[in-house]
Specification:
eight-stranded mixed beta sheet, globular, Aminopeptidase, 8 strands, 181 residues, 37% strand
Length: 181
């Protein structure tokens, strides 16, 4: 069973930070908002920031998704701060054996093994709890750290949309990757 706030893994990052990976919990809205706004500021400083009210609504939707196994949000936490997240979304219908993940890590905590841990845990839950066989994801061509991570974890490129992603007011290629579990 997938339970809100359930701790999945604890480890020490490459820089020595104690990291806890767990499912989203009812009280995560303020920290999720800070993390999302941090990422938004990095990628598109002119974008609208997430409000606490909107984030509270989203957290409630994510909790419902977790209980119904329709969306699983993994949080990476150090101290009381959410520094990363990985969203696993199973598909339905003829593609119900597949799911999608998206990953975000605050810049200061990248390349510490947090993304690796989040994706490995998401793939484990996808296979063992949700009975998924294929996971896909996308990123953009400028995100070299993410591309290297995904390749290292066994994801393979299967498509590109030229100029499919807007990053810092510039259109760049959107890269699609998948992995069989």
């Amino acid at each position: 069973m997938l339970k809100p706030g359930q701790i999945i893994k604890e480890f020490v990052s490459k820089k020595g930070d104690h990291i806890v990976i767990r499912f989203i919990d009812n009280n995560d809205a303020p920290n999720m908002r800070r993390m999302k706004n941090n990422i938004i500021a990095e990628l598109d400083p002119e974008s609208k920031k997430v409000t606490l009210k909107d984030q509270e609504k989203l957290v409630q939707e994510m909790l419902q998704g977790l209980l119904n196994k329709k969306e699983v949000l993994f949080c990476a936490i150090t101290g009381s701060e959410i520094i990363g997240r990985c969203l696993l979304t199973p598909f339905s219908g003829p593609s119900s054996h597949m799911g999608e993940i998206s990953l975000s890590i605050i810049k200061e905590f990248r390349e510490e093994g947090i993304g690796t841990a989040l994706i490995k845990e998401a793939c484990g839950v996808a296979k063992d709890k949700l009975n998924l066989r294929i996971i896909d994801l996308c990123t953009d061509e400028t995100n070299i750290i993410a591309l290297d991570l995904y390749r290292k974890l066994g994801f393979q490129k299967y498509g590109v949309i030229p100029k499919g992603h807007l990053v810092k007011n510039k259109y760049v290629d959107k890269i699609f990757m998948y992995k069989e579990l």
